[in-house]
Amino acid sequence: MLMGVFSGEGIISILTLSLLEIVLGIDNIIFISITADKLPKQLKAKARTIGLTLALGIRIILLFGINFIIGLKDALFHIGAWGVTGRDLILLAGGLFLVYKTTEEIIEKIKGHETELNPKSNKASMGGVIFQIVLIDIVFSFDSILTAVAISNNLFIMAGAVIISMIIMMLFSGVVSEFINQNPRIKMLALAFLLVISFVLIAEACHEVIGIKEVPKSYIYVALGFSLMVEGLNLWEKRVRRKHGKEIHEVQEKIHQEKLHLRDEDHS
Description:
Layout: H1 8-24, H2 26-36, H3 41-64, H4 66-71, E1 75-79, E2 82-85, H5 86-111, H6 126-151, H7 155-182, H8 184-205, H9 207-210, H10 217-267
Antiparallel strand pairs: 1-2
Helix pairs in contact: 1-6, 1-7, 2-3, 2-6, 2-7, 2-8, 3-6, 3-7, 5-6, 5-8, 7-8, 8-10
């Protein structure tokens, strides 16, 4: 099994799976970035690192307990014709929690309560933030592990891909977090994305009731990518206008100074 990791097929599997894990981890990074932003500045990076490290640990533990994960698809009890599984309960709880947290953040942004009225009132504790991150890590880890199992049955390939993807996410999480939190419109877009993901989790938990086996997340990621592209163009246009406006202001100031200089010469 270990030798298969270093074969051509094994390396391709690791790279493919690592890329998929990064894509599936986008929602995790967004949640961690927004949640950690509630902490004092000196603790934000530490919270992100701890959060992603815990996410890695949870994924590795779940990989070694893959039989347990597969067993969560068996019905624990029935509500009418709906066979409720352990996976359904975890996804439902995670989806509802994400709806609550995301809605709370959106309301705070709309009302302008984040930092304007009382900068210290919304600062969370490190323990509280880590607890929230762990809860969401557990929920998001299911997609990650089930994707890994679907692509490879080699435990070392799956573990390697998870580790590689989490290291890459750790390296870039600071940049992503800073970009999200410094651009209010991007942050609102990220919150809207998390809200959509939360409803997807709830829909997947209740798949038998609503008659949907699986919600294709590729549509959601494509929509997010398109929205980010549009918002990127808006930010670019805004930057160009600001630069152009600054140049016009400098020209006008120069003309004004020349007029004053000429007037002073006339008086003399």
